[in-house]
Amino acid sequence: MAIMLTAEQMRYTKATNAYVIKNPEQITNEFTITEEAVAANTLNLGETKKIADLKEYLKDFDMTAINSDDLRKVARRLFDNEMIDIHAFAIFAEGNLASGADGRPTDTDVKFNAIALFNERLEDYNDFLENNPADVKEDTLRWRRGMIDANHAIGALTYFVNSSRSDLKIHERA
Fold this sequence. Notes:
The chain contains seven helices and no strands. With about 170 residues, it is mainly α. The protein has one domain.
């Protein structure tokens, strides 16, 4: 059971509710990838073995029904293999954004649609920056870039998770 805090309670605690996804059924958006070469390029995967290893690792994950714990595991794998940068890693690691009074993540086992979550968070952040131009600074733009990169990465991951081919290869043209 999730407990929703009121605005008054939120002023006295580090606790935050999970991000409320407006369209939890969303499985495609502008970051959806439909070509293996694009997916591989997005994650800096140039070798067939790296692609096969990633696909094998991802076989037990579904980006439309993943929890914060698993999303962090995927993020760590991507970051350790230099497929995403630290800013995109942070977006992944935040999971559904739920935290307790001590500031630590909560509800880490609750599944959610990461595709919709990342896309909606980016849309909300874009709206925030548009409505608050005084807050547009180098750091906020870097954070926005991390959100964009995380959306691209989740699109690539979704492609690999859903790919029916086990022999993914990048077609190179000389």
